[in-house]
């Protein structure tokens, strides 16, 4: 389980204020499917809200502690029937960018300054599968869009 300082916990509570619940726990309680969904939510979002349908406060506190212990999450806030959980996101982006083929890829763009006396600007950009970087450092679609035969005959 992750330990948070009061300042970190306050910042996470503020960040979670606008979130909607990602997982809802019904009368069946903490089933393996619910635990898997909570884990997926933590992996992709890092900070999630979980709504528990049930009037027993002790049962909600027990679920909260069980989730945090089993998934290695930090308890941020338990207010009413809402539980706020935090666990740092797993970096899935790095695994995907190493693959070849279609999909997203990270590209570093170096643009020289206009005057030539200043340092060149360096930026990292995430490109889609059908995009390319031109010599000038702009991003364009790699494939030419097909022209409509109907529109060509009307012109």
Mean pLDDT: 85
Give the proportion of residues in helices. Answer: 25-40%
Known CATH architecture of the largest domain: 2-Layer Sandwich
> Under the CATH scheme, which class of the largest domain?
Alpha Beta
Tally the helices. Answer: 5
CATH-assigned fold name of the largest domain: Translation Initiation Factor IF3
Total count of strands: 8
Give the helix/strand class. alpha+beta
Sheet bearing the most strands, described? 4 strands, mixed
Radius of gyration over C-alpha positions, nearest whole angstrom: 24 Å
CATH superfamily of the largest domain: YhbY-like
Quaternary status of these chains? Answer: single chain
First CA to last CA: what distance?
Answer: 67 Å
Hey, roughly how much beta strand do the residues contain?
A: 25-35%
How many domains would you count in the coordinates? 2
What ranges have pLDDT less than 50 throughout 5 or more consecutive residues? none
Order of helices and strands: HEHEHEEHEEEEH
Shape descriptor: elongated
Instruction: Identify the strand order in the major beta sheet.
Output: 1-2-4-3
């Amino acid at each position: 389980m992750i330990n948070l300082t009061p300042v970190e916990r306050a910042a996470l509570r503020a960040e979670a204020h606008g979130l909607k619940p990602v997982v809802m726990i019904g009368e069946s309680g903490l089933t393996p499917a619910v635990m898997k969904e909570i884990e997926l939510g933590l992996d992709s979002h890092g900070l999630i809200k979980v709504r528990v349908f049930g009037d027993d406060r002790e049962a909600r506190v027990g679920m909260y502690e069980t989730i945090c212990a089993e998934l290695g999450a930090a308890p941020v806030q338990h207010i009413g029937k809402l539980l706020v959980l935090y666990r740092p996101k797993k970096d899935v982006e790095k695994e995907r960018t190493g693959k070849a083929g279609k999909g997203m890829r990270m590209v570093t763009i170096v643009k020289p300054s206009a005057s030539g006396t200043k340092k060149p600007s360096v930026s990292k950009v995430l490109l889609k599968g059908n995009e390319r970087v031109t010599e000038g450092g702009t991003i364009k679609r790699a494939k030419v869009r097909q022209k409509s035969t109907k529109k060509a005959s009307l012109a």
